[in-house]
Design brief:
Length: 208
Amino acid sequence: MSKPRTSVMLRTYFSEIFRLFFPERCPACGRARPEGVRWLCPHCRWDMPLTGYAAEHDNPVARKFWGLVPVQEAASMFFFTRHGRYRAMIHGFKYHGQWKTCLRLGAMFGAELSESGLYDTVDLIVPVPLHYRRLFRRGYNQAEYLARGIAGALGRKTIAAVSSVNPTTVRKPPCATAKTAGKTLRTSFRYAVRNGWTDAISCWSTMC
């Protein structure tokens, strides 16, 4: 038996032992993922409450921005329930460094946007800028990883953005209202305009 083959077998052997004691878990339900599954377990993937708004021009998300900012299309990925299993997943990538989950969510949502055909004219994916203090505290901007996932699925470019504006503290409810979301969009689009892009998707995560 050759040495390279022996080395591969040993790595596989120790990897299986490691998985036995430290199994990879689904970021939503927390259960051990089946072998070969790299992200959500099949049950959570199938049970995700998707909105389907990516394929609808006139949807509840788009209506929230009417009269606030000149938005051509707007959509959200899935419905959030305060006591649902997906709350832990969102908290994981917002506060616990699980950026891979954020990236895969972006890719999944980007595939929906691509299939809808409503976002074919988009030039750039712009993540909502995070204040540099929060960026230092968290280590990364989750909106940037969402943007990367969406950009990869749409075949578009994305940029990183950091805000120098002091962050506001929102207590209850912990979600963006239509007015604050409009301010967020305007901030994001300024970055797009400075870079010479006319059509852009602004990307961020919020919980309601």
